[in-house]
Amino acid sequence: MRVRQLSAATAVVAALGVSLTACAEERPSGPVAPAAPAVPVAAELQVSPVLETAPAAPAGAGTRRCTAADLRATVSAGSAAAASDGPVVERIELANRSAATCTLQGFPGIDLISDGTTWSLPRARTSQTRTVTLPPGGTASVLIDYLPYRGRGQRGQAEFKVTSMVLTPPDDTGHLTVHWEGANPQDRRSAPQPGTQVRPITAGR
Q1: Which end of the chain is more exposed for a tag (fewer CB within 10 A), N or C?
Q2: Higher local confidence (pLDDT), 112 or 52
């Protein structure tokens, strides 16, 4: 019985050997081309390009600045405060007389004229300036602080007799002449704190 079992096992092994030999004979004799690499799924998807949008233009970007040719300057009636020991405030009104909207921002140049003598007023100590938009007919204001001349009886006072005022709008080289009468300040041009100064442009009241 043991001899028969070994013979049967030997027959099975022999049959397997024949099958492997047949498979080996069916292989091609030349070199085998490598298989194409698998394409990732993500590479097959077409991604739309990102479109860059232009930045939005700021509001009022097309509005130009006001020049002297666009403006009319007048002393606001009754703007000077009543005489006192402190400074007086004078209001200069700037009106847009052109047919287009324009803007003003910052300090105007203010020169007081007295018989050929010029006094360029210093700026107020503030950095707060705002853009004022003037439609046709719109107005803006400029305030001037000054110490008024109170007569010869006041010790140490000298008068700067103003005959006219020259106003230069911000970022412009043109000038506006303003008649300023009856509001002569003390002549303190050489004083460390003259007490006469110009404030930045604000919206009209």
Answers
A1: N
A2: 112
